[in-house]
Amino acid sequence: MVLENYVILETGVPARLHFTDHVIMRRTTTDPLTGEPTTRNVLVFDVDRLNGREVFAKYSIMAEKHAGQFEAYLKDKSYRDYNLIITKIGEGFRTSWSVQVIPRT
Amino acid sequence: MARKNRQVETRLVAEYLKERYSEFTFIIKQPLGAISEDLMKREGYERALKVMRPFRPEVDAVVILPHFLLLIEAKVWNVVNGLAKLPLYKALIPVTPELKQYRPREVMMQLVVGWTNPNLETMARAMDVEVKVYYQGWLGEIVEGMHKYWTREYQDERQKKLKMREYFGVE
Lengths: 105, 171
Hints:
Strand order of the largest sheet of chain B: 1-2-3-4-5
Largest interface: A-B, 27 and 25 residues
CATH topology of chain B: Trna Endonuclease, Chain: A, domain 1
Oligomer: heterodimer
Strand order of the largest sheet of chain A: 1-4-3-2-5-6
Number of helices of chain A: 2
Helix content of chain B: 40-55%
Number of strands of chain A: 6
Radius of gyration of chain B: 20 Å
Largest sheet of chain A: 6 strands, mixed
Strand content of chain B: 15-25%
């Protein structure tokens, strides 16, 4: 097992993940524009597999448009039934995430 | 009135896919179109992806069916825009490197909307697009808000609110 605290995606590089659990938590961060502290809701997934390796890590999502891609799977935690290939596209405000959802057999 | 930048369409497509196509592989927000080979040689694949991003539109979803690729656009607002995009996106499938492994497959198109009307259906038929109405409770609140926005009552109420805000100096 590889110990990695957080999964950080590189732009344009797909990562294959499997989530086991999630939590929505409040986190205080520094606003990059104003430099002021701001409190945001963050969706944090527990990751047990990353690119075929067993890991014990977190995947943290702050962007509403990325979190929305998983909203349908949160209530029943059905993301457990899928492998996900996530590719971060672009940078800054124009960032988007391509999410390939693959049923686990 | 729901703010337009709420990620309503993201939620709509994610729920629709989960309900209708959960046994298949699908890709949410797939960039479409070619990546210049010269650019890839010069800058490498990752850098080329970044440079090409403004020229590669993203379709809401692609479902990998056994014999078809299903392109899906979900729209709550600007429904006709979604319809118009689909045939253009279809034209990019043969040159999209990320989908190369799934070719050759016939391409089908679906427009997922909260509501429909006869004109939309006629336009969709002409463009070979299937319209799917996917209406959930949470969407109802947003759709209702949108329809109310254009009524006299809502506009009068809104004008009152704006005046009160101005009176009290509230942003």
